[in-house]
Amino acid sequence: MSRVSVPCHVKGTVALQVGDVRTSQGRPGVLVIDVTFPSVAPFELQEIMFKNYYTAFLSIRVRQHTSTHTPAKWVTCLRDYCLMPDPHSEEGAQEYISLFKHQMLCDMARVLELRLILRQPSPLWVSFTVEELQIYQQGPKSPSMTFPKWLSHPVPCEQPAPLIEDLPDPSRVSSEVQQMWALTEMIRASHTSTRIGRFDVDGCYDLNLLSYT
Q1: Nearest to residue 83, comparing CAs of 107, 114, 51?
Q2: What does the pLDDT look like over 159-170, one tens digit per residue?
Q3: DSSP string spanning 105-117?
Q4: InterPro entries annotated for this entry (predicted)?
Q5: Which end of the chain is more exposed for a tag (fewer CB within 10 A), N or C?
Q6: DSSP H helical segments within the chain, as ranges?
């Protein structure tokens, strides 16, 4: 499925609260980044891509357009998504992350605004954020391709013109193959039953001729 980049404006980072762990520095433990789309109408969000920088957990909220007479509302579509699995190492600290709409907790249609909530409870990482943020929406759908049903009963418009006059009729191929298979099984079963329990066939010796008088 194709995707199209959505032009966006990333606002400055805002500290939401003081760190979860007491430290000598009054660093923030939760940051908020708001993303607006001034030149785009409400759209269906397909993918969010960014580079993590020491953010441990990520939550995402979207403001969606509902109707003309109802004000847009904020909805939480991702809650505490883990970006650093091991807090004692730097695993995932500076990796590129892609989040798709099927991972979200709500419908991602009619998006007006995006809010990223970053959390880092560990005192080991003094600063954290997300970088190179990119937003994508669903692109135009490619036209579907229809294939003729060769082993069933094709519609006259789907019936291929025969290249050689002696080619079999596609509508009869399936039934004839089944008949041949059934006939082969019947012959095999009949041949096996005639051989069971017989000792007078060619190549076998009569036990009376080998006995001593």
Answers
A1: 51
A2: 556 555 555 665
A3: SS---SEEEEEEE
A4: Nicolin-1
A5: C
A6: 170-195
pLDDT digits (tens, 9 = 90+) for 52-61: 999 999 999 9
The two tokens of residue 20 are 């979860």
Q: Counting beta carbons within 10 angstroms of the beta carbon of residue 135, is it exposed (0 to 12), middle (13 to 18) or buried (19 or more)?
A: buried
Dihedral Cα 168, 173, 179, 181, nearest 10 deg: 100
For residue 59, what are the contacts with CB-CB under 8 A and spacing of at least 6? 76, 78, 79, 80, 81, 116, 117, 119
- Unique residue bearing structure tokens 């669903």: 138
Cβ neighbours for 134, distance < 8 A, ≥ 6 positions apart: 5, 48, 49, 50
The length of the chain, given as a count of residues: 213
Q: Which stretches of the chain are assigned E, i.e. beta strand?
A: 3-6, 9-10, 14-18, 28-36, 45-53, 57-64, 73-82, 96-100, 111-119, 129-138
- The structure tokens 């939401």 sit at 16
- 32: Cα separation from own chain's centroid: 29
Task: Mention every residue, 6+ apart, whose C-beta is less than 8 A from residue 51.
Answer: 94, 95, 96, 97, 130, 131, 132
Phi first, then psi: give them for residue 195, nearest 5 degrees. Answer: -90, -15
